[in-house]
Amino acid sequence: xxxxxxxxxxxxxxxxxxxxxxxxxxxxxxxxxxxxxxxxxxxxxxxxxxxxxxxxxxxxxxxxxxxxxxxxxxxxxxxxxxxxxxxxxxxxxxxxxxxxxxxxxxxxxxxxxxxxxxxxxxxxxxxxxxxxxxxxxxxxxxxxxxxxxxxxxxxxxxxxxxxxxxxxxxxxxxxxxxxxxxxxxxxxxxxxxxxxxxxxxxxxxxxxxxxxxxxxxxxxxxxxxxxxxxxxxxxxxxxxxxxxxxxxxxxxxxxxxxxxxxxxxxxxxxxxxxxxxxxxxxxxxxxxxxxxxxxxxxxxxxxxxxxxxxxx
Amino acid sequence: xxxxxxxxxxxxxxxxxxxxxxxxxxxxxxxxxxxxxxxxxxxxxxxxxxxxxxxxxxxxxxxxxxxxxxxxxxxxxxxxxxxxxxxxxxxxxxxxxxxxxxxxxxxxxxxxxxxxxxxxxxxxxxxxxxxxxxxxxxxxxxx
Lengths: 312, 143
Description:
The complex is a heterodimer.
Chain A: H1 3-7, H2 20-26, H3 29-39, H4 44-65, E1 77-81, H5 87-100, E2 109-112, H6 114-117, H7 125-136, E3 140-143, H8 159-172, E4 178-183, H9 185-194, H10 196-201, E5 204-208, H11 213-226, E6 230-231, H12 233-247, H13 254-276, H14 283-286, E7 288-289, H15 291-295
Chain B: H1 18-30, E1 34-40, E2 51-52, H2 63-77, E3 81-88, E4 95-103, E5 111-117, E6 123-129
Antiparallel strand pairs in B: 1-2, 1-3, 3-4, 5-6
């Protein structure tokens, strides 16, 4: 153990000016924002919001260096939007961003849902919630579908206990932990109305819009390229039609639905190659999805309205 | 004359501050060790098995998590000895790498040396803690 580490460094007078531009580049914030732009299709309002938050945090840090502010800022956030709109992915980037700016010490993301926090019987909830909080300390706690924590219909629901512990830590250990609550916009709104304590402790609300059809197609192509697959022209056209039809059906989950559809298309492609091939197959055939692989989906048969199962 | 229990690392130094404990814990976590909290009111040096406060903390990334648990333990057993130990699982079994006291009673009465005369001028010695003369759980509360 060194003395410098324990006493927190020497007490020097604050600098007179801070170069924001160079802080932006040297802190690595620039890289993360560029990564966001590069890796995530669409989401323009989200990217703009993240950029604003990053700028605010950078300025806040500069103010702290000049001795203008001393209180750690509230950083808890809520991410609202439909499933598959990139909330978890952006939360990971946010953890990285906060870490590089020095607002959290480790930069890891602990992703949980109600089941990880709330117990099954009396006395089970507090240890479970505390266990998760301990693991998340120094990083970001991402609570997916956070509105499930509160069940209005059951006043003795154990979720309330988890909420109280969370609120306490969100207030008292702001420099140890950042909490991000995520879920559908309308249900989160109800949740915040029922738990005003959360609303007042959350500094940033970020809304994730649905992807447009063109964006989803672009996402599909990116996903496939990452796995060294490609779409033939007819398949791309079929997928475009698929996206339009799939959107109108229940349980549409944006990029996640597309990923699942592509997984199933790869399954059919493998089956097709296996059944039709007579001689050796080349790399091109192995990596190309053809129109029939997509068109075999149940979505095109127009009867997927019956039942809530995932359309094939 | 009061005495100080000197078990484990750092025990000849002044008591560590919370900031210093945090730095030590973070060092342990950075090595990939699991930190465990134990407490006791039986200060005999051969009493190696202290009571465990919960499970050893695996998968904790930041010392703040351990300090949260230590604060809880102090709330309940603040009048007893509390120690942190760090276990390293990398050899394939859990082996202790570091153990140090982080909390001690306000008053430590110390030990009595007992002599027992045996046949032929032989002598047997044993140490007995003054605190341990009271039943477990009542040893340090009233000072």
